[in-house]
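Progress narrative, Year 2. Work on Response regulator receiver domain-containing protein from Methylovirgula ligni advanced from sequence curation to structure prediction during this period.
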Amino acid sequence: MASERADDPREGAHPARILVVEDEPLIAMMLTDMLEELGFTIAASFAHVAPALEYLAQSDVDVALLDVNLGNEKIDPIADFLAERGCPFIFTTGYGRTGIPASHAGRAVLQKPFQISNLETTLREELNLSGEL
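Result:
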């Protein structure tokens, strides 16, 4: 589908690096496939908060997709960390805005299940990209 790459205007022409935090393996695989089809690079994928935070302490990403429900863990520490860095992120959830941390209520939300076109549109908005992939 996508022959061009999703360029990040902050860094010049390179595929935007995306962090995926999703605890359901099938959804994480689906997200990875969709993102690769759209020309993005998966920086890393985690199912739990602690390893994601350890990764972020040492690495930069261009945007993150954060599952609101990670079992009994709250996504808040990752959202707070990214917000402090000024890094865009998008919540993914099957429950609408329910469970979105109050301090991040204005952030973008992708309602599961979503189509690749919804993912593309939301990522483009968060990364301030224009045009089609």
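The radius of gyration is 14 Å. Residues 13-125 form a domain with the Rossmann fold fold (CATH 3.40.50.2300).
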